[in-house]
Amino acid sequence: MISLIDTHAHLDHIENLDEELKLAQVAGITAIMAMSVSVESCRKNLEIIRTHFQSQIFLALGIHPAEADVSKLDECCELIRQNKDRIKAVGEVGLDFWYKDVRQDEAKKETQKKVFWRLCELSCEMNLPVVVHSRGAQKHCLEILADTGVGKAVFHWYDASIPILKNILDQGYLISATPNLSYNTAAREAVEFAPADRVLIETDSPVRFCNRSIGEEFQAGPKDVRRTLKAYAELKKIDEESAANTLNQNARRFFNVMV
């Protein structure tokens, strides 16, 4: 069986976590990158890796833009510093200007920017890569990454334009794809354009995916990174084993893990 790494899952949001981890193991998922979205989420994920030490779970700590709160920054940064030897990235962090109420609220946007900026600075201080949420704000994210000097970043679940993708690649950054790669046109165009060594695959578990063209809907678990692999291999017109070898190597290099 082909071994795989799920580079982005929210384990603290999965209700039946033990069952999902067993299913992932059976499916050949050898490592999972657990993302955090708030201080509470960071603490839950730290507890998960403590109680599931036998599983290959690696941790990212951070504050998601939807949870952006300047008053929580010091606590989050302290958690990251205290657990430097236990984490592999700062994430999931970034900006989200997708919804109209945020786009039209300068105060909300500034709060997101302040939180993202501070966490990017910390990632540089600690030599950690950044996992970026950038929906509706890719250009702004790129500016902050460049201004803070972040060297390693992945634009999670990238499905924006090719011109912006070119800028991302020019900065040396990566993108990641989810199971929607099998049906989402923008995601497919992005992955088709990106060099093989600039792509990671993930599930964003426990997100629900819906392929209306074939009437398929499912709630993702880490095991479903195999769906992403299948879509990637078909899109790139290569066999799944070759694709997995490249994608796993990308993940190992980006997160500095040996699995």
Key descriptive features of the protein:
259 residues, alpha/beta, TIM Barrel, eight-stranded parallel sheet, two-stranded antiparallel ribbon, 10 helices, 10 strands
Poorly predicted spans? none
Strand order of the largest sheet: 1-2-3-4-5-6-7-8
- Total DSSP helices: 10
Question: How far apart lie the N and C ends?
Answer: 15 Å
The percent range for strand residues is 15-25%
Report on this model:
With 259 residues, this protein is an alpha/beta fold. The protein has one domain: Metal-dependent hydrolases (TIM Barrel, Alpha-Beta Barrel). The chain has an 8-stranded parallel β-sheet with strand order 1-2-3-4-5-6-7-8. The chain has a two-stranded antiparallel sheet with strand order 9-10.
Q: Which secondary structure elements does this structure contain, and how are they paired or packed?
A:
Elements: E1 4-9, H1 17-26, E2 29-34, H2 39-51, E3 57-61, H3 73-82, E4 87-94, H4 100-103, H5 106-126, E5 130-133, H6 138-148, E6 153-155, H7 162-170, E7 174-177, H8 185-193, E8 199-201, E9 208-211, E10 216-219, H9 225-236, H10 240-255
Parallel strand pairs: 1-2, 2-3, 3-4, 4-5, 5-6, 6-7, 7-8
Antiparallel strand pairs: 9-10
Q: Can you describe this structure in just a few lines?
A:
With 259 residues, the chain is an alpha/beta fold.
